[in-house]
Amino acid sequence: MTEAEKGAGAAEGTEGAHGTAGGTPGSRPSVLVLRALGLGDLLTVVPALRALRRGYPGHEIVLAAPERLAEVARATGAVDRLLPTCAPGREVPAVLPWTGPPPHLAVDLHGNGPLSHRLLERLAPGGLWAYGHPGLPLLSGPRWRADEHERDRWCRLLRWYGLDADPGEVRIPAPAVASPTPGAVVIHPGADAAARRWPVDRFAAVARDARAAGHPVVVTAGRGEHAAAHAVAELAGLPATSVVGGQEDVPFSRLCALIAEARCVVVGDTGLAHLASALGTPSVVLFGPVAPRLWGPPETGPHRALWHPFPDDDPLRPGDAHGALPDARLLRITVEEVRGALESLSRKADAAAGAGP
Hints:
The protein is of the alpha/beta class. The chain has helices at 3-6, 39-44, 46-55, 70-76, 115-121, 150-160, 200-212, 226-236, 252-260, 271-279, 292-295, 335-355, and strands at 17-18, 30-34, 60-66, 81-85, 105-108, 128-129, 185-188, 217-221, 243-245, 264-268, 283-286, 303-306. The protein folds into two domains: 3-160, Glycogen Phosphorylase B (Rossmann fold), CATH 3.40.50; 185-355, Glycogen Phosphorylase B (Rossmann fold, 3-Layer(aba) Sandwich), CATH 3.40.50. It is built from twelve helices and twelve strands. α3 runs parallel beside α6 (150-160) and α7 (200-212) runs parallel beside α12.
């Protein structure tokens, strides 16, 4: 989920093969797309990237994003090259390492401006597609809406400029490599803010139940999430080898293989939830400070989004997505509820598998 979108919703920011930094290394005109955020943020704009790929088949599609997402960008099949970006936290990059001729078109899929708009304007592109902003009155673009799902938002932007874009086009192909643990229940306790981290002991209870039901269990961890993942494993009675990642991010091809062949993923409102959606893997996604209406999985997929706002809450962003403690709404989700959702999705998957082609 994009951090600024999780907050006030009106501030800047909404979370292909990798080549060298620069402009167009070949003779093709370029379309430069800015989305300098995280894994989930990139996966939510896959429909928009696909629309640009179809709309500009002779152009090089260049994605400005953190270098660690190069493999993810390649997996979308819609990006030719990654332009590495660098910024503290989730801020808009100060500069883009672009050389050579200006882009034929620059597309701001990063936020509602003005910082991201101006960053692209400095490259003097032939055209700039972005949401309108009062700070840039000469920029023509549609009106930003704070109540829009992230996938819908960027497809609407492209439709305003004349490209057909389908927000349901989220899928990416499964990797060619096999899963290290096929059929696993994958537990992901991490998130980049405590407000979106369900308690470790509750994740452990779900993991323990899944193991007792005879399913292999894997606990995944992003970089810096080592302690939480191992705490879940220990409390669940799992061996330390059940934890994947933690000291560093799990290589994307390995993570994709694991998720693609998982029985189900139990995860908070974070990037791995979007990966499960992209691969069509059943998922139970736990929401707290931000409504699933803004960042939830596709309603048509094998997913369950759990959320329990209070009666007088803001209907979209009732809590602080950057808070230092688990959000009160997240804590209203019980182990029994998650267990029930997991069992329901498992039964449906078993029934579908038994039905055959």
